[in-house]
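Retro notes, item 3 of 5
We never archived the inputs for the S-adenosylmethionine complex last cycle. Fixing that now. Sequence and ligand:
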Amino acid sequence: MATLYIIATPIGNLEDLSFRALRILKEVDLILCEDTRVTKKLLSHYKISKPTISYHQHSKLTKIERILEQLKKDKNLALVSDAGTPCISDPGAKLIDYLVKEQPDLKIIPIPGPSALISALSISGFSADKFIFLGFPPAKKKRKKFFQEVSNMEKTVIFYESIHRIKKTLEELKNALENERRIVVCRELTKKFETVYRGDIEEIIEQINLLPKEEFKGEFVVIVEK
Ligand code: SAM
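Structure as it came back at the time:
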């Protein structure tokens, strides 16, 4: 039985790929990608030419079975997502769960590396001995409950947000927060427009509203101090 490597890849800056990740990407027989077009940019940067196939959260059981077949044929596989660590608000867990049940002796090896939440937490200055990660706020229903949960939490809270909802999310967080909490919002970590906003919720909203329309882009991590 072969090995499935779960490989963390950069969250922006392509230099953030570990030597080990690079070596394994060069050695495996096949790379499972969330989006093959995104991963091909990374592979071509490092001059790696390997077969790739897409694997995402809607992949059917037949695809998962085909992946298992490859492993049974002794092919070593790598799983990567578009950015960061697979399975962290990204596809992968369903595949791993299936393989662990079907093939308990299969070797599944993590190749650690970047993750937006850990990168953001590491510069927050907030207590990180205990923290809670909530993924993305729900898109439609149960948003109020989500932000109330953040407000009630007695631990550092981290969540992800996209450009499409960041302003709405910060406004809703402001309405939910019952006492003054320090907040860090990290935008575009490791990329050209990397910006870290620090302050209370009103100050953060003010700073983000100051961004000119053409610069209002990016990916965000929000951290609320306990
Ligand atoms: N698996 C990834 C990880 O380990 O970080 C997370 C994938 S999740 C689909 C994508 C979200 O992560 C983005 O919407 C954003 O909230 C956050 N994110 C990813 N890259 C980021 C970056 N460079 N700067 C800030 N946030 C980022």
